[in-house]
Design a protein that fits this description.
The chain is an all-alpha fold and 192 residues long. Helices cover 77% and strands 0% of the residues. The chain contains nine helices and no strands.
Length: 192
């Protein structure tokens, strides 16, 4: 039997929990299920994540970090600042149309843990604030007269698409969000 390092165990537990939490919801998945799916003992899981709250928070932060990595990569492929903003919505449209799409992990977590002091809730809120601030920075680079307003409007479109696509036809609402973002960006950031 091959022994895993502590980091390998941590990654395994977080990967399994990420899959389960996203598919079923954080509250619906017990730690016993995570332990069983990981194929390790209780001690191994709890050594890495002493509480379910710690594991849930690591899940949310991991999804938030992955989101930013993918979106920044898509934006960085564009030269025109307006296209950088729009690239985010191109990725969103593709994500929403995917067969395993179950909504935004941060919005889902905020719904499951509505009390503001829960660490997973705070991680989700922090992520949305970072997205808004990033959108504002991109909007300023794109020449928006009111970058904060455009950022807030784009965040509404983003979150609305994520929430609606989880319930209705994801492909349709992803494409509609992309079209709305294009309209808002075009109005706020006229081409020179």
């Amino acid at each position: 039997m091959v022994r895993r390092t502590a980091e390998e165990n941590r990654r395994n537990v977080l990967d399994v929990a990420t899959r389960l939490f996203y598919q079923q919801g954080i509250r619906a998945v017990g730690m016993d299920t995570v332990v069983r799916e990981c194929g390790v003992g209780n001690a191994t899981v709890y050594r890495q994540f002493p509480t379910k709250d710690a594991l849930a928070t690591a899940y949310v932060q991991g999804r938030a970090d992955a989101w930013f990595e993918r979106m920044r990569e898509a934006a960085d492929e564009q030269h025109d600042p307006r296209e950088k903003l729009l690239a985010v919505f191109g990725v969103l449209a593709a994500d929403c149309a995917g067969p395993t799409y179950r909504g935004c992990p941060m919005l889902n977590t905020s719904t499951e843990f509505p009390l503001g002091q829960h660490p997973a809730h705070m991680a989700a809120v922090g992520h949305k604030q970072q997205v808004r601030d990033w959108f504002s920075s991109l909007a300023a680079d794109a020449g928006a007269e009111s970058p904060d307003q455009l950022a807030e409007e784009l965040l509404i479109v983003l979150n609305g698409a994520y929430a609606t696509a989880a319930v209705l036809d994801g492909g349709t609402y992803g494409r509609r969000a992309l079209a709305l973002a294009q309209l808002l960006i075009g109005q706020a950031c006229p081409r020179p």
